[in-house]
């Protein structure tokens, strides 16, 4: 009886899909699904700051911010993890100038006007003056005017080796569709499990990059990492299911399977 009623309601909604009430209800439902999925890009409320606070007692020594933008996350990491050397990478020259003005002069911070990828070279960026955080190498249909810029990229493994860095406590990646290339550029460090934690974004841009959440899971599992989704109260570590491929995102974490201490410390079950 219940199933039949739901089917009848569903058919009614489909036939009246353009009605004001149905459209309003559908809009509210989408918002609820977004809220449930933690579609929140504010680090103080979406769990990103919580990760840094929970990581701080482990006294991380090296943190890498790939896609630092204007430096909000880098500043939070610098303030929270007092022992860590921070390497902040920002590929867009105009955005890098803002980043430098905000973080220059801090002894534990090194700023790099470079992008990270799977091979050294140059790429063409779509830079958005109105919204620099959206700067991307993809053809994402943002509603803002953009300018094309050429920028240099390097492999993470090679560049960090030149800096004398052999271990990364936290690698944060926010590169608007270049995530898979950045991760492949850290192939050696990941294979050696010389990166303890990776925070990465997933969303609609992955439709364009053709690197799905299932691909993230497969890649990290091949290196011996567990993947979980970030919420305001911590990380839900979970195996991939097709239902997770919702393109809502935004933030996920991967942690070495052998670091049970980190897995437990960052877990939702621990509480905020």
Considering the chains and any ligands shown, give keywords for the structure:
2 domains, three-stranded mixed sheet, alpha/beta, 272 residues, Rossmann fold, single chain, eight-stranded mixed sheet
Determine the fraction of residues in helical runs and give it as a percent range: 25-40%
**Average of pLDDT:** 95
* Beginning-to-end CA distance, first to last residue: 42 Å
Instruction: Output the number of helix runs.
Output: 11
Q: Specify the CATH class of the largest domain.
A: Alpha Beta
Tally of domains: 2
Q: What strand line-up does the widest sheet have?
A: 3-2-1-7-8-11-9-10
Describe the structure.
The chain is an alpha/beta fold and 272 residues long. The chain has 2 domains: 1-36; 42-117 and 151-270, Vaccinia Virus protein VP39 (Rossmann fold). It contains 11 helices and 11 strands. The strands form 2 sheets. It has an 8-stranded mixed beta sheet with strand order 3-2-1-7-8-11-9-10, with helices on both faces. It has a 3-stranded mixed beta sheet with strand order 4-6-5. Helix 3 (48-55) packs parallel to helix 4. The longest helix is centred in the N-terminal third of the chain and has 17 residues, at 20-36. The mean pLDDT is 95.
SSE layout and pairing:
Elements: H1 2-15, H2 20-36, H3 48-55, E1 62-66, H4 72-80, E2 85-89, H5 93-103, E3 109-112, E4 115-117, E5 121-127, E6 147-155, H6 156-162, E7 168-173, H7 179-185, H8 187-191, E8 195-201, H9 205-209, H10 213-223, E9 225-231, E10 234-237, E11 251-256, H11 260-266
Parallel strand pairs: 1-2, 1-7, 2-3, 4-6, 7-8
Antiparallel strand pairs: 5-6, 8-11, 9-10, 9-11
Helix pairs in contact: 3-4
